[in-house]
Design goal:
Keywords: Methyltransferase, Transferase. This is L-histidine N(Alpha)-methyltransferase. It holds the Pfam family Methyltransf_33. InterPro entries: EgtD, EgtD_Methyltrsf_superfamily, MeTrfase_dom, MeTrfase_EgtD-like, SAM-dependent_MTases_sf. Helix 4 links the parallel strand 1 and strand 2. This protein starts with a helix and ends with a strand. Helix content is 37%, strand content 27%. The protein folds into two domains: 120 residues, no CATH class; 176 residues, Vaccinia Virus protein VP39 (Rossmann fold). It is globular, with a radius of gyration of 20 Å. It has ten helices and 13 strands. The strands form three sheets. Strands 1, 2, 3, 4, 5, 6, 12 and 13 form an eight-stranded mixed β-sheet that branches. A three-stranded antiparallel β-sheet has the order 7-8-11. Helix 3 packs parallel to helix 4 and helix 7 packs across helix 10. By secondary structure, the chain is α/β, with parallel strands linked by helices.
């Protein structure tokens, strides 16, 4: 049984059914997510790119070293990092970029792009779950900055976010840095619009996960019998996505049967939004030291620099 099958069967077997959001990104899911990134309502990539383009110089001055390893967790195709790495390379004599991702094909794109756009740095892609691949470069004695861009920390509930930060700290030596992308709390309607768009793209993105389960796990989801619903709670800062069963039905997956009641939900995603107080609390609990933060002009998003 592979991880995908195991996680699907385990998640749907719970009293409150769930599916891990990391499985959204098959080839079709990745294509649909690019549509989401281009939506006017989806403010996140534009806000983060504003930070990268306007504040990379200031951040790079903080990271100035003779030698430096940049280790990016969940690196993707590298398009987001081109400008930052180009600027950083002017402040570091010997810069090595380690993009970590579970997708070998996406890392090939990353390597090709970075080599073409930032030729004066070394690049060493590592394929696999970053909890494991980080161990492969643990013994390097070069100062490092671990980079977790996007708003991926928001996919962890509080307890797992703390476990994640503690894991990052264990991979850092004294003086190393951790650069974390976070989506900030803001007007609730702006957040809700980003996750429940009027174009139906986010709904297709979520429903595509059922199609993937049908295709790869020989399941028989009736995709049209599910709807997408998103919510945001401004007090907790949690944006959540669900698939809602539109009728009483049964679904078979690899010999196991799962029953759905009308209006029963499958939780597919949580995206936590933060304020400075919450981030500082998490950092202190994990033992990281807050150094500085960098936000876009509307304070929608932030890169936060921590040190050990």
């Amino acid at each position: 049984m592979n991880d995908f099958e195991n996680d699907v069967l385990e998640g749907l077997g719970r009293k409150i059914k769930s599916l891990p959001s990391k499985y959204f990104y098959d080839s079709e899911g990745s294509r649909i997510f690019q549509e989401i990134m281009d939506m006017p309502e989806y403010y996140l990539p534009r806000a983060e790119m504003e930070i990268i383009h306007n504040q990379s110089e200031q951040i790079s001055q903080k990271l100035r070293q003779q030698e430096l390893d940049v280790i990016e967790l969940g690196a993707g195709d590298g398009r987001k990092m081109v400008h930052f790495l180009r600027v950083l390379s002017r402040h570091v004599r010997s810069l090595t970029y380690f993009p970590l991702d579970i997708s070998e094909s996406i890392l090939r794109e990353n390597e090709k792009l970075i080599k073409g756009q930032v030729p004066d740095i070394q690049i060493s892609p590592l394929v696999g779950d970053y909890f494991q691949t980080l161990q492969q470069i643990r013994e390097r004695e070069i100062p490092r900055v671990i980079l977790f861009a996007g708003s991926n920390i928001g996919n962890f509930p509080d307890s797992r976010a703390l476990v994640f930060l503690e894991m990052v700290k264990r991979e850092m030596k004294s003086g190393d840095c951790f650069l974390l992308g976070v989506d900030l709390k803001k007007h609730p309607k702006m957040i809700w619009d980003a996750y429940s768009d009027p174009h139906g793209i986010t709904a297709r993105f979520n429903l595509n996960l059922l199609k993937r389960i049908n295709r790869e796990l020989d399941a028989d989801f009736e995709v049209s019998a599910f709807d997408h619903f998103a919510t945001y709670h401004p007090l907790t800062g949690a944006a959540e996505s669900f698939l809602v069963s539109l009728k009483k039905q049964k679904v078979n997956i690899r010999g196991k049967e799962f029953e759905f009641q009308p209006n029963e939900v499958i939780q597919t995603e949580i995206s936590q939004k933060y304020d400075e107080e919450k981030l500082m609390e998490l950092a202190q609990s994990s033992g990281l030291t807050w150094d500085s933060s960098y936000s876009d002009s509307q304070s929608l998003f932030s890169w936060v620099l921590f040190k050990r």
